[in-house]
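Regression test attached.
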Amino acid sequence: MGKTKMTKTMWKPTGLALAAIAATAAVALAVPSAMAQRDPAYAAARAAGQVGEQPDGYLGFATTPTPAIRALVQDLNIKRKAAYTASAQSTGSTVEQFAFTSGCNLIAQTKAGEKYQTPSGAWKTRDGSPPERDARCP
Amino acid sequence: MKTTKTGARRLAIGGRYVAVMIGASALAGCVQIETPDKPIEINLNINIRQEVVYRLDGDAKKLIEQNSEIF
């Protein structure tokens, strides 16, 4: 009798702990997948060609943006700069060098219909052909 | 009278030469000022070189993949 009582009292906290672990794991799994997705407003602006990739690794406006899109892009560019800064430090490069290399890749990754800026500064819509990039891009 | 005139002419010619010399030295000074072209070479080093872009390419790809929500 005493033994069963003891196991019961021991089981309760373990169950709670397991539930807590499961909950944390669920959050940990859910957060990256939620983070990995673009903000719907940003995705829409990109698809509409209002926002495009610049050769310097930052987002730019192909057409005059609404205040909401402007704020959204500024926020993303600040986050990008923070990411570039951290990577530049770990690779022993400058923020500009790392941002530029990222820009090469980001322009290459644009999908048909999306906008990107050519080295001359003109905005182009990506089609099936390779994008016009800086000669230094890999 | 003649000698003074020629003297004055000589002086005038001399003055012109001096003016030309000053002009030339001023030009020479300009050329010397241009020598700080070297800091531009340093700027070229700061600028993005292709070899640097190639070296950073893999890390840039990783960063974009891992932070796809901001790219």
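Expected vs. actual: identical. Residues 15 and 21 of chain B are 10 Å apart (CA to CA).
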